[in-house]
Amino acid sequence: MAEVDYSKKRFLVVDDQPMARESLRAIAQTVGAFAVDFAPGYQDAIFKIRNNTPDIILCDYMLGDGRSGQQLLEELRRFDLLPDETIFMMVTGEQSYEQVVAAVELVPDDYIIKPFSPDKLLLRLDRVAAKKKFFASFYREKRKQEYEKALAILAENKGSEAGRAYRFETLRQEAEVHMAAGNVEQAETAYRNILEKYEFPWARAGVAKSLRQQNRLTEAREEIEKVVAGTPHYFDAADIKANICMAQGEHEEAQKVLDAVAKKTPRNYQRKRLLAEAAELNGDVETARKTLADVVANDTMPGAVSIEDQLNLARTHVGAGDLISAEKVLLLMRESEVMNMQLAQQGSFSALLALASPAKGKPKFTGLRPALLETPLPTNVRIDVMHAALNINDNELADRQTKQLMSGDEAKKVFGTVRKLYALHSRENDFREIQRQVALQRIHHEET
C-alpha cells in the first residue's frame, strides 16, 4: 500500500464537543496532518465544506441539536458538495454503528469506533486513500457524466487483480451509474448480481428503485417490504416504500410510513417534503401545510428552499381553502424568480394565483393558455392547470390536462385528486367519459 503524505492534506474535524475536537486534532497531527480545521456543528461544517472542501473529514456521529454525521453526509451528497475524492470518515462511540453503516445507502468511506489509536486511524486512512486512488479515473468520468466511459473503466477494474478487493464497490458503482444514465434494467441486473453474493439491504433497495422506474410496482413493493421489515433503521427504505405506495394510489399507507420515520428524523427536510406530498394526496391538507411550512422555515442549507417548495406550500393553502395565505406566499416570491421561471413553473404559479386571487392571476393564466394546451408538463403542474381551468369553466384546457394525466404512468397516484376536483365542479360524468376514452385508446394501442 503506497504511503500518503498527510502533511499535504487538509483535514476538517467535525464534533460538537471541544475536548473531542482537540483529541481528534492531536491524533490527526500524530499521523502527519499539518492543516487541521474545526467545525463545532452541522451548520458550520456545511459552510466550511462549501467554501473550501477539505481532503479528509473526521466527523463525529452525534453532532448535537438533533443532528447526526449521517445527516451531514446525506446533505453534502444531496447538494453535490462532497467530491468522490474527499475522504469522509465517521467517528463514533457506538459499537452498534456497524449495523447502521451496513444498511444505509449513503455510506461514509469508513468509520472508526472511539477510543482509537493514531496507528488505527492511519491504517483506516491509508486503506480508504488506496481505494480512492484505484477509482480516481472512474470518478473523473462520472463527474463529467461520461457514463459509457465510466462503465468501461469499471469493467476493466473489475477484471483486474487489484480490483478483487473492491468487487462490491465496483458492482455498486456500476448499478448507480446505470441508474444515473437512465438504464434502469441494467441497474436492476447489477443490483441483483450483488444480491447473489451478499444480502446488502441497499442493494435490495436498489432493485426496488429500478423496478419502480420500470413501473413494475407490485414487484418493487415486494422487494422494499423485505428491506423495511429486515432493517427498520434503514430510513431511506421507508422513503422508497412511500414513493411506491403513492404510485399505487395507496396514499394513506404512504403517509403513515413517512410520518413514523419523520418523527425519528425531524431534521430530514427531504423526507418532510415527501411526507407533505403524501399527506396532500391523502387529503390531509393540514398536515401537508404544516410540514411544508416547517420545510420553508427551517431547511437552512443555502439554496435549499426552492421555487417548487414555495409553489407546493401555496398549493396546500389552496387545498385547505386558505386563499389569503396562498396569495401571500405567491406574491412574496421575488420578482426576479417569477420572471426567470420555466414554462412549467409559470403554469403552476399563474394557475395557483388564479385560484387564490382571480383578479391578479387569471390574466396571466389565460395568456399562457396556448402553451399550456400544447406543451408536455409535469404531473403536479397539470393538476394545477386543470384545477384553475375548472374554476374558470375552461373545460377544453381542463379535459386536455386530465386526459394526459389519466394516460400517464402516474394515473393511479393522482386518480383520487383529479376525481375529487371534477366532483367539486359537478363534472363527474365528464371525468368518467375521459376515463373511458383513455381506456379505449390504451386497448387500441395494445392491439396495434
* Biggest sheet, spatial arrangement of strands: 2-1-3-6-7
Radius of gyration: 25 Å
Q: Into which percentage range does the β-strand content fall? A: 5-15%
The rounded distance between the terminal residues' Cα atoms is: 61 Å
Major sheet description: 5 strands, parallel
The helix tally amounts to 25
Helix percentage: 55-70%
**What is the number of strand segments?**
7
Give the class from helix and strand content and strand pairing: alpha/beta
Quick one: overall form? Answer: globular
Whole-number mean pLDDT: 91
Q: Could you list the spans in which at least 5 consecutive residues all have pLDDT below 50?
A: none
Q: How is the topology of this model organized?
A:
Layout: E1 10-14, H1 18-30, E2 35-39, H2 42-51, E3 56-60, E4 62-64, E5 67-68, H3 69-78, E6 87-92, H4 97-103, E7 110-113, H5 118-134, H6 136-143, H7 147-158, H8 167-181, H9 184-197, H10 201-213, H11 217-230, H12 235-247, H13 251-264, H14 269-281, H15 285-298, H16 307-319, H17 323-331, H18 335-339, H19 343-356, H20 358-367, H21 369-374, H22 379-391, H23 395-407, H24 411-424, H25 428-447
Parallel strand pairs: 1-2, 1-3, 3-6, 6-7
Antiparallel strand pairs: 4-5
Helix pairs in contact: 6-7, 7-8, 8-9, 9-10, 10-11, 11-12, 12-13, 12-14, 13-14, 14-15, 15-16, 16-17, 16-19, 17-19, 19-20, 19-22, 22-23, 22-24, 23-24, 23-25
